[in-house]
Every structure is written in C-alpha cells, then in structure tokens.
Amino acid sequence: MANISDTKGLGGLISQYGTDAAKSKAGIEKPEVPKDEAALADQNVFLKLYIEQLKGQDPTAPQDANDMVAQMSQFSSLERLTSISDQLENMATSLTSNQALSASTLVGKSILMEGNRTKVTDGLDEVPVKVVIPENSQTATLKIYDADNRLVRTATLNTGDYKWDKKDDDGNVLPSGEYRFAASSANEKGEISAMNTRLPTRIQGVTINGENGTVLNVENHGKIKLTNELEILG
Fold first, then answer.
1. Residue 199 DSSP SS3
2. Which of 20, 34, 44, 92 is deepest in the core (most CB within 10 A)?
3. Last residue of some domain: 98, 124, 154?
C-alpha cells in the first residue's frame, strides 16, 4: 500500500497519478472544459488525485503532517495564481477598452505631417506650419499658393514655427480650400535651398490593436503608427 510520506507534495501526486494510464486506472478523467473553466478543472483533478492517494495509504503508517501541509500550501498557491491570471486578463481587457475609447476621440482631429499641401476649413482660425531652418540660413521665406497655383501670401520666417492667419498679402481672409506651401532659405552667399514643411493633416480613422498596434488612418498619408512623437492638434 502506498504511504503518503513516500511522495513529496504535488510533484509526488503527479508522478504517481499524473499519467493518463494511471488516471484511467484510478477512474479519474480530466473533462474537456471551456478555457474559462480550465483552472477549476485543474483544481478538481488535484483533489481527486489527493483523495486517491489517501485511499491507498497504509493505515499503520499515517500520513506525515508536514507533507500534508506542503501539499495544501501548493494547492493554495495554485488557487492564488489562477486568481491572479484572471485579474490580469480582466485588466488587459479593460486597458484595451480604454485605449479604444481614447483613440476614437482622435478621429476628426489633425496631426502635423511632412508635406506641402493642406486643406483649410472654416472652423480653423490659424494654420500651423513648421520647418527646420538651417544654421547657415540668413533669410527664410514661406510662400503660400491657392488651388489655382496663385501666390497669395509671402511671409518671412524668423523661427521654425509659423501660424498663418488665412489672410493674403492685402489682409483679406481667404476662402476654405486646399493650399500649397513652399519654404526656402538663403545663406550668406545667396544660395537658395528648399525646406520641408510640416502641415496639419486630418485623422480619418483609427485601427485598434492591429498587427502594428494602434494605427491612425491619416488623409493623404495612409496608416501611421500612434507614438508619443506625433504632434496631434486639438
């Protein structure tokens, strides 16, 4: 007859009854259960294995109390780990929902992207423009053209940040539509070089938890991965 002192904790139970053949002989079968009930099934199998071992022990040599405590401690740890796993899964689900809710608020807003064209709407008071002016630049100029390619505004850039008030050189407010921006700088030799511009571009949609994580669908730029480096406008 088996003595519980001959096996140590959960490892002994598994080695004695853990194989499919041993469980079949003892009349113990682990049922097929859904994923959310799998942890409970594991605990039930543990208890059945433990009871089968008690049935087979030598009554003249009762179980060692230390082994009993060790096995119950391992069972308690199994329960705690199962609970922690469930809590982490719930937390991940909650975080995903919060991320989806936060990302959905970005639709309709604008993001600064490199390009030379942008659409100006009635609800926009100013159009932010950003450029990187070379260190050897003596003068920097920004020219703005309308949809018919007519020059409507020429501005001198003192810094890399400029906000266009939607007015032409005569102070007239221009209508909504698409406008083209061209920035250039001149060094001390009079050599002129073009500068890239970053302009507001509308966010048309958001993809949550795709292959590349959270992705923004940006007008004229396609899908852009959401990172902390992006400058999103209100």
1. strand
2. 44
3. 98
Residue 144: count other Cβ atoms within 10 Å of its Cβ: 24
Give the CATH number of the domain where residue 190 resides. 2.60.40.4070
Q: What is the pTM of this model?
A: 0.55
Residue 41 sits at φ, ψ, to 5 deg, of -65, -40
The whole-number pLDDT of residue 152 equals 96
Q: Cα(56)–Cα(39) distance, rounded to whole angstroms?
A: 26
Domain that holds residue 120: 112-201
Strands 127-131 and 161-164: antiparallel
Task: Tell me if 165 is assigned to some domain.
Answer: yes
Q: Please write the tens of the pLDDT for every residue from 148-192.
A: 999 999 999 999 999 999 999 999 999 999 999 999 999 998 899
DSSP state of 36: G
Do the domain assignments include residue 212? Answer: no
Strand partners, 224: 216
Please check whether residues 92 and 124 belong to one and the same domain: no
SS3 of the chain: helix, strand, coil, percent, to 5 = 35, 30, 35
Note whether 112 and 119 are within 8 A (CB).
no
Mark whether 44 and 93 lie in a shared domain. Answer: yes
